[in-house]
Amino acid sequence: MSNLPSHARVVIIGGGAVGASSLYHLAKAGWTDCVLLEKNELTAGSTWHAAGNVPTFSSSWSIMNMQRYSASLYRELGQRVDYPMNYHVTGSIRLGHSKERLQEFKRVVGMGRYQGMELDVLTPDQMRGRYPFLETHDLTGALYDPYDGDIDPAQLTQALAKGARDLGAKIVRFCPVTGARREKDEWVITTPQGEIRCEYVVNAAGYYAREVGKMFGRNVPMMVMSHQYILFDEIPELAAWSKEVGHKLPLLRDVDSSYYLRQEKYGMNLGPYERNCRAHWVTPDDPIPEDFSFQLFPDDLERLEWYLNDAVERVPILGTAGLSRVINGPIPYAPDGNPLIGPMPGVPNAFEACVFTFGICQAGGAGKVLAEWVTEGQTEWDMWSCDPRRYTDYTDQDYCIAKGMEVYGHEYAMHFPKHYWPAARKKKLSPIHDRIAALGAQFKPYNGWERAMWYAKPGDDTSEEATQTWGREGPWAKRIEEECLAVRDAAGILDLPGFSRFRLKGEGAREWLSSLITGRVPKPGRIGLAYFADDKGRIVTEMSVMTIEDDFFFLITAAAAQWHDLEWLQKHRPADAAFTLDDVTANFACQILTGPKSRAILAEVAEADLSTPWLTHQTAEIAGRYCQLVRVSFAGELGWEIHTKVGDTAAIFDAVWEAGQKHGLKPFGMEALDSLRIEKGYRAWKGDLSTDYTVLQGGLERFVDWSKPSFKGKAALEREKQQGVAKRFVTLTVEAGECDAPYMSTLWSGGEVVGETTSGNWGYRVGKSIALGMLRADLAVPGREIEVEIFGDRFKATVQLDQPLWDPSNERLKA
Ligand SMILES: Cc1cc2nc3c(=O)[nH]c(=O)nc-3n(C[C@H](O)[C@H](O)[C@H](O)COP(=O)(O)OP(=O)(O)OC[C@H]3O[C@@H](n4cnc5c(N)ncnc54)[C@H](O)[C@@H]3O)c2cc1C
User: Fold this and answer.
1) Candidates 54, 223, 331: which one to mutate for ligand 1, based on the most atoms within 8 Å of Cβ?
2) Three-state DSSP class for residue 416
3) C-alpha of residue 56 to centroid of ligand 1, in Å
4) What is the end-to-end Cα distance of the chain in Å, rounded?
5) Which of 123, 261, 515, 591 has the fewest CB atoms below 10 angstroms from its CB?
6) 16: CA distance to ligand 1 center in Å?
7) Distance 278 CA to ligand 1 centre (A)
8) In DSSP terms, which residues pair with 641 in a beta bridge?
9) pTM over 0.90
C-alpha cells in the first residue's frame, strides 16, 4: 500500500540537504502538514558526495547572512534534534596573493563583524602559526574565518529530516514526481505511488530542478557542471602534528589559484574549481539521464593536474601522499552561481529552492528563507541576490551554459566594480547598439539588455586586466568625469533600453494603485515616484507612475525588476478587477536627454511644448515619430526622458544627436548616471531601496500620504512613526582614499558600529566622495562626523542636510 498522503499543505520535491532543511523550517514555523517527496533515498542527488565544507565567507551580504545562519544552526542541530553529527569547526585560511585580494578580505572582515562574526586578516607569520605546513613567501596575507569547517552532508540531511519528522512533517522516499497540474486552486502532484494535492509546492530537486520546473511550465535558468575532489592517503607528518596539537588543520583556500585543501582524517582533500572546466548534459545527444541517484562521473584527473601541482608547491607534505579516491559529481549552476530561492516566476503558489552550488553550507539559511517565503510571502532579510525573478526571458540554454562555465571557472574571483563579465553577452540589443558602440560605449547587461557604461576614446585601455581594481581611478575615470561635466554644462544622451513598463488601464485602476502605494497617484499629464511597501512597511519597490488618463497609467521600473514588480502587481490584483495590467516592456524604448542645453536641442527637433514644468509628460513628435516626452532627470539637470516605440529609437536618436552637436551634446553611460544620481541623493533599487529597510527608515516620508484611509503597509508605518525609527537614511560626504564606499561598508562612531552604506560613488559635480546609507537615528544629524570603513580602513564622513548635495533646491532641474 502506498504511504503517500492524499493531501498536504506543502509538497517539497527533492530530499537533499536543501529540501530537508526546507521541510524542517516549515515544520518549525508550525506548518507541519508538509510532505517531502524524494525519488530515491534522501541525499541521492549532489548531497551524498559533497565535500561538506561550511564556510561563512561571502562578498554578498545576503549569502553571508544565509551561511552565518547555517553555521550557527549546525552547531546546535545535532543536540536539538537528537541526531549526533560529524561537524568539525576547524576555521579556515583564505590565501591572498595580491593587494586587491587583501582589500577584498578586509571588506569581508567588516561585513562579518557587522553580522557578529570575528573574522581576521593574518600576516604570513600568523598563517604559519596556524598552518605549519604552508609555503608563504609569495602571499600578501590571508583571511582567517574561525567559524569555517566541515560537516557530513548525509548526516546533516538526516538530522534535518529527523527534526522535521519529529515535528510532524512527512517524508516519502522512492517517490519520484512525474507531473503536476493545477485544479481548483490546488496543485495535484503525480507520482507512481499516486497523486497528492497541495496548496503550495517547492522545487528542491537540485540538478534535476530544470526537469521538475518543466512540469510547471517553468524554464529554470541553470546548467550542470562536473566538480571533482581528490582524497589522499594518510600523511604521517600530518597525523603526528594533528595528534600532538589535538585538532585538525584549518581548511585552506588558495582562491587566486582556485582550489581548497582540507584535512580529511590524517590525509587531505583537494577540490579545485578549474578554468578548463566541463559542463554535462548540455547537448541534445547527451540528455540528463532519467535517474542518476548515487552516481558519479568518471574521474578526469587531467583537468586537475595544474591545481594538484600548485597545491603541492603550497603545502609540500601533500606531495608525499598517495591518491586514494576521486569524486566527480554533478553540481548545478545558475548563471551567476547563486541559488534560486523564492517564488517560481509566473507560477501560482509555487516556489524554488534549487540550483545550489554551495548547498551544504547554505542549506540551513536556505530552509529558513524558503519557509518564510511560503508561510509569510516575504523574508526577514532582503534576498534579491537569490530571488528566481532576477532572471527573465533571456536565459536560454546557451546563455546558462556559457555563464555557468564562466562562474565555475572563476568561482573565487573578485568582482571588481568596473569589470563587466564577458560571457553570454548581447542577449538583447537596443536598435542603436551599433551606433553607440561606434562612439566607444563599453557595455554591461541589465536584465539581458546591453547598456553603455562609459564611453572610451581611441587609445583608452579597455582590456579586462585594466578593470582588476577596487579603486576609483582607471581608464574610465577621466571619461566618466567628462560625461558628468557634459551633462552639467551642456547636454548628454543616454540610451536606456529595457526599462520595465506595465500598462494599467480600466475602471478602478486608480483606486487600486492608490491602495498599493504609500503616496498619491499623480493626476493625468503628470508623473511621480511611487513606493510600494509590504505589510511591515518595508520597501518592496519603487516605480514611476505616468498618468495618461484618470484610469490609465504606465508604471515604469528598473530593468532588473521586470518580473519581480509585475508579480507584485499581479499578486495584489483582485480576481474580478475590471482593469487590465500588461507587461509592455518589449514595445518601448527610452533615451535620456539631460543638461542645460537639452531644451535648445529639443526645440530644434521636437514638435512639443518645452515650457511644461518638471514632472509632466506630453505626447510629442521628433523626426516625424511619435514619442512621449517626460520632464524628469535622474541625473538632476534640466532634461527629458524620450519614450518611443522600439522601432523609432534610431530615427529619434539620429535627429537629437545631429541637432545636439553644436550644443556640445555627448553620450553618457550608466557609470556617469550613477555618479550624477548619488549627488542628488536619488536611491537605487536593491541597494538603497530594499526590504531590509522601511519606507520611513529610507527617508521617504514625503512620499507617504497619511491622509489616505488605507494603503498597504500603512498600519506598520504608523506604528513605526509613533515609536520612532531606529535608523535613518543619510547622505554622507567621505574623506575617502582611492576607493569610494562600496555597498554595505560599516559606519562607525565612538568605536561602535552604527550603520551601513547602501551605495557610494564619486560626485564629479561636487568633487566629493559620497555615500548613501543607514545610520542610527540619534546620529543622523547634519554636520555629525562619523567614520566609514572602506576595505578595512576608516575614513572621516560627515552627515549632510536632508537635501541633494547638488542643486539642493532643484533649480536646475526645474529650469
Ligand atoms: C564534488 C562536489 C563537492 C561539493 N562540495 C561541497 C561543499 O563542500 N560544500 C557545499 O556547500 N556544497 C558542496 N557541493 C555542492 C552540494 O553538493 C550541493 O549544492 C547540494 O548538495 C545541493 O543540495 P540540494 O538539496 O539542493 O540538491 P540535491 O542534493 O541534488 O537533492 C535534490 C534531490 O531531488 C531529488 N529529485 C530530483 N528529481 C526529483 C523528482 N522528480 N521527484 C522527487 N525527487 C526528485 C533527487 O533525487 C535529489 O535527492 C559539492 C558538490 C560536488 C559535486
Assistant:
1) 331
2) coil
3) 19
4) 78
5) 123
6) 5
7) 18
8) 592, 630
9) yes
Q: Are 244 and 83 in contact (CB under 8 A)?
A: no
- Model confidence pLDDT, tens digit, residues 392-426: 999 999 999 999 999 999 999 999 999 999 999 99
H helix or E strand, kind and range, residue 130: helix 124-130
**Cell digits for 440?**
566607444
pLDDT, tens digit, for every residue of 509-539? 999 999 999 999 999 999 999 999 999 999 9
Residues 171, 173, 177, 183: is their CA dihedral positive or negative? negative
User: Which of the listed residues 268, 356, 370, 411 should we mutate to test ligand 1's pocket, taking the one with most ligand atoms within 8 A of CB?
Assistant: 356
| Among the listed residues 2, 359, 329, 67, the one whose alpha carbon sits nearest the alpha carbon of residue 205 | 359
Round to whole Å and give the CA distance between 293 and 279: 18
Best residue among 43, 157, 201, 360 to mutate for probing ligand 1, ranked by most atoms within 8 Å of CB: 360
509, 554 contact by CB (below 8 A): no
Give the single-character DSSP code of 634: T
With H, G, I as helix, E, B as strand and everything else as coil, classify residue 778. Answer: helix
HSE at residue 334, side-chain half, CA atoms within 13 A, is 27
Q: How far is the CA of 10 from the centre of ligand 1 (A)?
A: 21
Average pLDDT per 10 consecutive residues for the chain, totaling 815 residues: 89 98 98 98 98 91 94 96 95 97 95 90 95 96 95 98 98 98 97 98 98 98 97 97 96 97 96 95 93 96 96 97 96 98 97 98 98 97 97 97 97 96 97 98 98 98 97 98 98 97 98 98 98 98 98 97 98 96 97 98 97 97 97 97 97 98 98 98 95 96 97 98 95 98 96 96 98 97 98 97 96 95
The atom number, within ligand 1, closest to the CA of 207 reads 30
Write the DSSP string, 15-62: -SHHHHHHHHHHHHTT---EEEE-SSSTTTTTGGG---B-----SSHH
Distance 23 CA to ligand 1 centre (A): 15
Place of cell 585580494: 101
Ligand 1 center–CA 359 separation, angstroms? 7
Residue to mutate (ligand 1; options 12, 22, 23, 47; most atoms within 8 A of CB): 47
Query: If DSSP states are collapsed to H, E and C, what string results for 425-446?
Result: CCCECCCCHHHHHHCCEEEEEE
The residue whose C-alpha atom lies closest to atom 25 belonging to ligand 1 is 16
- Can you give the pLDDT at residue 660? 98
DSSP codes of every residue in 213-249: HHTTT-----EEEEEEEEEE---HHHHHHHHHHTSPP
- State in Å: Cα 44 to ligand 1 middle: 8
CA proximity to 649, closest of 607, 593, 590: 590
CA of 272 to the centre of ligand 1 (A): 18
- The pLDDT of residue 115 is 86
CA–centroid distance, 330 to ligand 1, in Å, is 8
Instruction: Identify the residues whose C-beta falls under 6 Å from ligand 1.
Output: 13-19, 37-40, 44-47, 49-53, 176-177, 204-208, 212, 227-229, 293, 327, 329, 331, 354, 356-361
